[in-house]
Protein backbone atom coordinates (compact mmCIF):
# COMPACT_ATOMS: atom_id res chain seq x y z
CA UNK A 1 0.00 0.00 0.00
CA UNK A 2 1.24 3.46 -0.83
CA UNK A 3 0.62 6.72 1.01
CA UNK A 4 -2.23 7.72 -1.34
CA UNK A 5 -4.38 4.73 -0.34
CA UNK A 6 -4.50 5.91 3.29
CA UNK A 7 -6.01 9.22 2.28
CA UNK A 8 -3.47 11.40 4.16
CA UNK A 9 0.27 11.98 4.31
CA UNK A 10 2.02 10.69 7.38
CA UNK A 11 4.80 13.24 6.95
CA UNK A 12 2.67 15.95 8.51
CA UNK A 13 0.93 13.77 11.05
CA UNK A 14 1.01 15.20 14.60
CA UNK A 15 -0.15 12.01 16.28
CA UNK A 16 3.32 10.45 16.23
CA UNK A 17 5.26 13.52 17.38
CA UNK A 18 6.75 13.29 20.84
CA UNK A 19 6.18 16.13 23.24
CA UNK A 20 9.31 18.12 24.13
CA UNK A 21 10.58 17.48 27.62
CA UNK A 22 12.42 19.85 29.89
CA UNK A 23 15.29 17.40 30.49
CA UNK A 24 17.38 16.36 27.52
CA UNK A 25 17.35 12.66 26.80
CA UNK A 26 20.74 10.99 26.16
CA UNK A 27 21.06 9.67 22.66
CA UNK A 28 21.46 5.96 22.40
CA UNK A 29 24.60 5.26 20.42
CA UNK A 30 25.49 1.99 18.84
CA UNK A 31 28.14 -0.10 20.65
CA UNK A 32 30.62 0.46 17.80
CA UNK A 33 30.29 4.23 18.04
CA UNK A 34 30.67 4.06 21.81
CA UNK A 35 33.85 2.02 21.43
CA UNK A 36 35.32 4.38 18.83
CA UNK A 37 34.77 7.55 20.80
CA UNK A 38 35.28 6.23 24.34
CA UNK A 39 38.27 7.18 26.49
CA UNK A 40 41.21 4.76 26.58
CA UNK A 41 41.02 2.03 29.15
CA UNK A 42 42.36 2.88 32.59
CA UNK A 43 44.92 0.05 32.52
CA UNK A 44 46.22 0.80 29.01
CA UNK A 45 49.90 1.72 28.80
CA UNK A 46 52.01 3.08 25.96
CA UNK A 47 54.69 0.87 24.47
CA UNK A 48 58.05 1.26 26.22
CA UNK A 49 59.82 2.28 23.01
CA UNK A 50 57.41 5.22 22.70
CA UNK A 51 58.45 6.67 26.05
CA UNK A 52 62.08 7.51 25.30
CA UNK A 53 63.71 10.88 25.71
CA UNK A 54 66.10 10.25 22.82
CA UNK A 55 65.68 12.52 19.82
CA UNK A 56 64.19 10.75 16.82
CA UNK A 57 66.19 12.72 14.27
CA UNK A 58 69.62 14.25 14.59
CA UNK A 59 70.59 16.95 12.09
CA UNK A 60 73.97 18.64 11.90
CA UNK A 61 73.39 22.27 10.96
CA UNK A 62 76.33 23.85 9.11
CA UNK A 63 77.86 26.77 10.95
CA UNK A 64 79.34 28.37 7.82
CA UNK A 65 77.81 28.42 4.36
CA UNK A 66 79.93 27.22 1.47
CA UNK A 67 80.06 29.51 -1.56
CA UNK A 68 79.76 27.68 -4.90
CA UNK A 69 80.41 29.22 -8.32
CA UNK A 70 77.98 27.68 -10.84
CA UNK A 71 80.39 27.86 -13.78
CA UNK A 72 83.13 26.12 -11.84
CA UNK A 73 80.63 23.50 -10.60
CA UNK A 74 79.49 22.88 -14.20
CA UNK A 75 83.09 22.46 -15.38
CA UNK A 76 83.85 20.05 -12.56
CA UNK A 77 80.69 18.01 -13.16
CA UNK A 78 81.19 17.81 -16.94
CA UNK A 79 84.90 16.98 -16.62
CA UNK A 80 83.97 13.52 -15.27
CA UNK A 81 82.29 12.88 -18.64
CA UNK A 82 85.25 14.24 -20.62
CA UNK A 83 83.56 17.39 -21.88
CA UNK A 84 83.23 21.10 -21.10
CA UNK A 85 80.39 23.65 -21.15
CA UNK A 86 81.91 25.14 -24.30
CA UNK A 87 81.82 21.79 -26.13
CA UNK A 88 78.17 21.32 -25.13
CA UNK A 89 77.28 24.81 -26.41
CA UNK A 90 79.06 24.07 -29.69
CA UNK A 91 77.08 20.80 -30.06
CA UNK A 92 73.78 22.56 -29.31
CA UNK A 93 74.55 25.17 -31.99
CA UNK A 94 75.16 22.42 -34.57
CA UNK A 95 71.88 20.68 -33.67
CA UNK A 96 70.00 23.99 -33.87
CA UNK A 97 71.58 24.85 -37.24
CA UNK A 98 70.73 21.41 -38.65
CA UNK A 99 67.13 21.73 -37.48
CA UNK A 100 66.80 25.14 -39.18
CA UNK A 101 68.28 23.81 -42.43
CA UNK A 102 65.85 20.88 -42.40
CA UNK A 103 62.84 23.16 -41.91
CA UNK A 104 63.96 25.74 -44.54
CA UNK A 105 65.17 23.87 -47.64
CA UNK A 106 66.96 26.19 -50.10
Q: What would you report as the Rg, rounded to the nearest angstrom?
A: 39 Å
Helix content: 25-40%
Q: What proportion strand? A: under 5%
Task: Please identify the structural class as seen in this structure.
Answer: mainly alpha
Report, as a whole number of angstroms, the end-to-end distance: 88 Å
Mean pLDDT: 76
Task: Give the low-pLDDT segments.
Answer: none
Largest sheet: none
Order of helices and strands: HHH
Please give the count of helices. 3
Shape call: elongated
What descriptors fit this protein?
34% helix, 106 residues, mainly alpha, 3 helices
Layout of helices and strands:
Layout (H helix, E strand, L loop, with lengths): L30 H7 L32 H10 L5 H19 L3
Amino acid sequence: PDWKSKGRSELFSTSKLSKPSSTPQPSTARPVAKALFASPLAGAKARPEWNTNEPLLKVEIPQKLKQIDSTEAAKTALATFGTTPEKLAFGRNIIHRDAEEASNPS
